[in-house]
Amino acid sequence: MGKTTLAKLVYNDDRIKHHFQLRMWVYISEKFYLKQILQKILVPAAQENVTLAQSTAIQSIHLMGVEQLQANLQQIIKDKKFVLVLDYVWNENRLRWNELRDLLIGGAKGSSIIVTSRSSKAASTGGTCYEHKLRGLSPSNCMSLFKKSFEDGPISVTNAELQIIACQIVSNAAVCHSWLKLWEDCSLILSGSNNPLAHVPPFLNQQTSLETLLSHSSVLWISGEVLEACISNCKYLRQLDLRKSIFEVLPSSINTLKHLRYLDISDNLKIKTLPQSVCNLQSLEVLGPHGCRSLEELPRDMWKLISLRMLSITTKQKSLKNTGLDRLRLRRLEIVECHNLESLFEGMNMEGLTALEYLNIRNCTNLSSIPTDSLKFQTSLEVLQLFSCKKLDLYMAEEEIFPSCLQATDIDHFWVAENANLTGMVPRSC
Fold this sequence. Notes:
The protein is an alpha/beta fold. The chain has helices at residues 3-11, 14-19, 34-47, 52-60, 66-77, 94-102, 120-125, 139-148, 160-172, 176-185, 202-205, 224-233; strands at 22-29, 82-89, 112-115, 212-214, 239-241, 262-264, 286-288, 310-313, 332-336, 358-362, 383-387, 413-417. It has a domain at 3-125. The longest helix is centred in the first third of the chain and has 14 residues, at 34-47. One of its GO terms (biological process) is defense response. Residues 1-149 form the NB-ARC domain. This is Disease resistance protein RGA4.
């Protein structure tokens, strides 16, 4: 049970309704603006004091100034015993708290304010009399609840191997109720049989001609066994979207997906390597391991991806010269958060990348240079974007109005932003 759920149970309890003359619930969020909070308090407060004049006031609350809002609030709570719930509070500024508290003093003795917050400091700053800290379920209770969620269904969490997987899921769960929602939404459900996909919905289990598989936004964890089973069962996949997953290993059997054209594993913070077998996907057109901040290096045989047209990467490598990128027929290349990368395209034969139309380089904090000769072969380049590369310096001669390394291109759009050496792009005579 979460903080807001517990507060709602208290707020809606019949004893609370009879004990307090006035009940108000306000969702605060991260922005603690006094005027907005007063407006949010006044609406439920005025609704419980219905007269024709007050009904008109409700409609005009958003037009009132702070002083008028304060006066109306004081009038409504005067001599009334009220309960006010401030939900999801982040403010830790005592002065702002005091401003709001002073406006709520006019109520009758016994009035109460309930605050829900993830921050103990926010609660103590607000002058909390009693702090109730919610704790998660114990691992054993969490496992019991997890098993109970399958009692009325066709799946039984009794198989020894399944028990291990269930323990992994429970250990990754911050709170169990989130995982109940996960298992309601998840399209991949483990069974107790030898076939990992025996109880997967028919569209996965029966139709082996499935062409697209997307991971749901609520699926925070997926086992290697399930991923392996998907790959082995869905030979005709053309799109595989696993963004924001947290699996550590992409199965080497990925190379059996001969028809795969789109593979997105972006924003996976766990994966450290890509299997060499991924380079055998000769139909692959789009590959996106960007945002994979733990990825040590790209496979050496990238040049085998003969159909690849779009590539977006994050890697810890200092150089890309042994990746085979210069032998690809890429049209779009994004190099993102490669913080160890020092020189772009150095030691690479850029004559192979003549089809490149779009080049985006961003958040490469140690990138200091782009060799002059590396871009002169990019005659098809139309868009070049350089963002947050603090050390990058493109030298221009005094007589140049545009970098010489770009003059041979058909570039139409050239964006440079948040680069510390931006002055290096400006002719000295300016």
